[in-house]
Structures are given as structure tokens and as C-alpha cells.
Amino acid sequence: MLSFGIVDDDAVSRLMLHKIIEKGGLGEVVGTAGSGSEGERVLLETSPDVVVIDLLMPDQDGIETIIRLKEQGFQGKYVMISQIENKEMIGKAYQAGVEYYIQKPINKIEVEAVLSKVNEQWKISRSLKEIQDSLTKLSLLNLSPDSTRKKRSVREIVQPILMDMGIVGESGSRDVTDIIEHLTKHHRGDGIPPLKELYETAARTHKLQEADVEKEGKAAEQRIRRAVMAALAHIASIGLTDYSNPKFEHYAPLYFEFQDVRMKMKEIDENLKSEKSKINIKKFLQVLYLEVTDKMRSEQ
């Protein structure tokens, strides 16, 4: 279970967040503070997994507190809460290490949704770390003058990329991973097979009767489409708050069409109803395949 720290100069907000976290089964609150300087002390003492912190506080604001905590080696994740809508300030918060932003006044549904995502990402990160730790221990046990560093599997390379794009928890991410695994084993060259063939490749990982493959392939197509759409929305939202964010600079031009990113940013910025966007799924899969194979070659 995740542990949380809450730093907010508003006692009512602290109480509301405390109740939402613990009554919603999101985790355990191990420390609270009413100011940045007090929060710095409390968080270093309690070492929570996640810090929910207000942006504006009188003695030491949220950004300054995060910077000071990082300087002292604090490793937790940060979720910022504030009434401020200034994009420059929000951009600075993301640069300081904030992963999510919650707008005040506090909304129970929004808080639960954001913290559930944080919880999900934390579990995945922990699983990946456990895998990496296990591989490190194995390599140390088998260490010899002729030993070489164990190469990462395709899945271990793909997961952090999907995590950066905010879709590692999407059901379609499994289909995407299955397709990339298949391509790295059975395909050569920069181009990739037709999408229908790839969707049916993902379907066959479920060990279906051949008669059911086409139907499951169509279901895989929808799952992948939703996952790629979610990735586009996630990257667009990052670019909207911080155009120079490294994740936005890397993934936006590489994985998506420029006009699709701009349209999604406009939808988010102007709170427009989401249109049925056209997305280039083949480009997304082809770029992911090339990035994975490039990383695999660099580790040889």
C-alpha cells in the first residue's frame, strides 16, 4: 500500500485529502504539514511514497520545497494542487519533478482518479525495479572475467517507453508489447507488415482457435487505438504546460503527426469536446519497433 504525505497551508484541504486517500483505499497518510518548511522536515522523517503538495504557501512554496527535498535525497513522487492556472508556474512545477497537477477547489472524483494513476504507476515501477534488482543479483552471482551484462528483454525496454507516454496501464499496451516482441523475433527491416496482420498477431498470443483470430484481431485494434489516443492526450497535455519538457520534445514529433498533436493541445487548452481524431497507428508501432531494436543493438 502506498504511503502519502500532505503539505498544504489550508487545514480544511489537508483534512479533505486525508479522508479521500484513506477512505478511498488509495493508501495511508503518514505525515501532514501546514507549511513548506514544516513539510520538508516531516517528509524527510516519514519518507512517504507520494507527496501531495500545495503550490502556493506563505513561508516556502511547493516548488521550492520539492527542490530542497530532492537536494536532500528524498525519492518520493509529487502531485501538485493549486488554484493557480498560470501555465508558466505549472510548467516550473513539472520541471521541478511534479508528475500530476490537481486544480483547486478539491474535487473528490478528480483526486481519486489522479492518485489511482499514481498508485498504478508506482506498482509498475516497483515491479520493474524488482526485475532489475533480480537481474543485477544474478549477474553478480555469475560474475566472471568473461561474463557480459545481461541484455534487457523486449518487454523490459518497451514498458518504460509506454510509461513515459502514460499508457502502461491501458489494456492495449499489452497488445502493443506483444506485437513488438513478435516483430523483433520474426521481422527484419525498417518497415512493418500491414496493421491487420499485426492485430491478428496480437490476437494469436491469446491461443485462440484460428476461426476466432479475426474477431479478436478487431478487438485488439480497438484496444490499441484507445491506447494510442491516450498516449497522444498525455503527451499533448505535457506539451501544453511545458513545451520544452524532454518527454514532449522526444515523443511528440517522433510518434505522432504534428497536426494531431496540435489539435489535441487545442482541445485540451480550450476545453473543447474531443473530436474523433485520426491517428497514425502504423507510424506509432513502426517508431516503437525501431526504437526498441535500436536499444537492443546498443546493448549488445
Automatic annotation (TrEMBL):
Pfam families: Response_reg, YcbB. The keyword Phosphoprotein applies. The keyword Cell division does not apply. Signal peptide: none annotated. The modification 4-aspartylphosphate is found at residue 54. Coiled coil: none annotated. Residues 3-119 form the Response regulatory domain. This is Response regulator. Transmembrane segments: none annotated. SUPFAM superfamilies: CheY-like. Gene3D superfamilies: 3.40.50.2300. InterPro entries: CheY-like_superfamily, Sig_transdc_resp-reg_receiver, ST_Response_Regulator, YcbB. It comes from the Bacteria. GO terms for biological process: phosphorelay signal transduction system. Keywords: Phosphoprotein.
